[in-house]
TrEMBL record:
Name of the protein this chain belongs to: TBC domain containing protein, related
Cross-referenced PANTHER family: RAB GTPASE-ACTIVATING PROTEIN 1-LIKE (PTHR47219), TBC1 DOMAIN FAMILY MEMBER 2B (PTHR47219:SF20)
Transmembrane regions listed in the UniProt entry: none
Pfam family, one: RabGAP-TBC
Residue stretches making up the Rab-GAP TBC domain: 1-205
GO terms for MF: GTPase activator activity; small GTPase binding
């Protein structure tokens, strides 16, 4: 999309580009598209060249309710019917593979469509669904709720003061980390950091989600510990632009946006030795109270 002059004429102020910070622009489009073309190579390097077969754009969704949601999400994302229809076509083509829909999938597909042809976006989204985040793109994503609880256990072990502060505010992880884990930080990170996040996720696998989340919580720990209310804590956790504008700088750095890049870069230094034990504990918790936890997680599904 970003290589098209029509895109910039109609979509420069589109909601999807609120976190662009002029990183995507007509002058940078060709270089960014070349960089994005390597995303599939990262998937293949990790999982093998035949891990995900090439995909064809075939809008085969026969579920009328789902199609209405696709249209609504496209209208919230792009201004022009031309680009809205491209997103609807991709989501409809993904329906037979996923068999369900979470708005996070719409976020991911829309960001990738800025950079890649529809067929490449389909292949990446199928790869994310099968190989990285199985079950995350369901309207009621049990797998996501489980992994949110894994994050909670890891946070308790690695950052107990932050974990206690969030618990005091009754901030449950499945409520605050869906935009990190399911929406893959679209609408959270400025685009420069977001593209780096996608590259690291495809290179490192799903464990990178936990590393990223812990790095974010660590970078925001002072603000979280000083938060006066649950509402303020949630603003911090979603990196609300009112608190973290696109130009936010990391301590000791002068580059605009370095705060967000530092989170993604710091994630590589987060160790997850205790992740297996945390996963086992979260799975046991989900077995005991799965229905209640699922209801909590389901609120992050198909509707906005």
């Amino acid at each position: 999309m970003i290589g098209s002059s029509e895109f910039w004429e109609t979509e420069r102020e589109a909601p999807l580009l609120n976190r662009n910070a002029n990183f995507f622009c007509p002058e940078s489009a060709a270089a960014l598209q070349q960089r994005a073309a390597k995303l599939l190579l990262l998937l293949e390097e990790r999982h093998g060249a035949a891990a995900v077969e090439p995909q064809l754009l075939q809008p085969d969704c026969e579920d009328e309710a789902a199609k209405r949601i696709f249209v609504l999400d496209a209208e919230r994302t792009f201004k022009s019917p031309q680009f809205q229809q491209q997103l609807v076509a991709v989501l409809s083509s993904l329906w037979p593979e996923v068999g369900d829909y979470h708005q996070g999938l719409g976020f991911v597909a829309s960001f990738l469509l800025l950079l890649l042809p529809a067929e490449a976006v389909l292949q990446l989204c199928v790869g994310l669904h099968r190989l990285y985040l199985p079950g995350y793109f369901k309207a009621a994503p049990v797998a996501y709720v489980r992994d949110a609880r894994v994050l909670q256990k890891l946070l308790q072990q690695q950052q107990p003061a932050v974990a206690a502060r969030l618990a005091a505010f009754c901030c449950c992880p499945e409520a605050y980390c869906s935009k990190w884990f399911v929406g893959l930080n679209v609408h959270v990170l400025p685009f420069e950091a977001l593209l780096l996040f996608f590259e690291q996720l495809l290179r490192c696998g799903a464990a990178f989600l936990f590393q990223f989340a812990l790095a974010l919580l660590q970078c925001c720990s002072k603000q979280l510990l000083a938060a006066a209310s649950a509402a303020e804590a949630l603003e911090i956790l979603r990196l609300d632009p009112s608190k973290f504008p696109n130009a936010a700088k990391a301590p000791g750095q002068e580059a605009a946006g370095s705060f967000f890049l530092k989170i993604v870069q710091d994630a590589a230094n987060i160790h997850l030795e205790s992740a297996a034990a945390a996963a086992a504990a979260a799975a046991a918790l989900l077995r005991c109270c799965g229905a209640a936890l699922l209801l909590l997680g389901a609120g992050t599904g198909a509707g906005r």
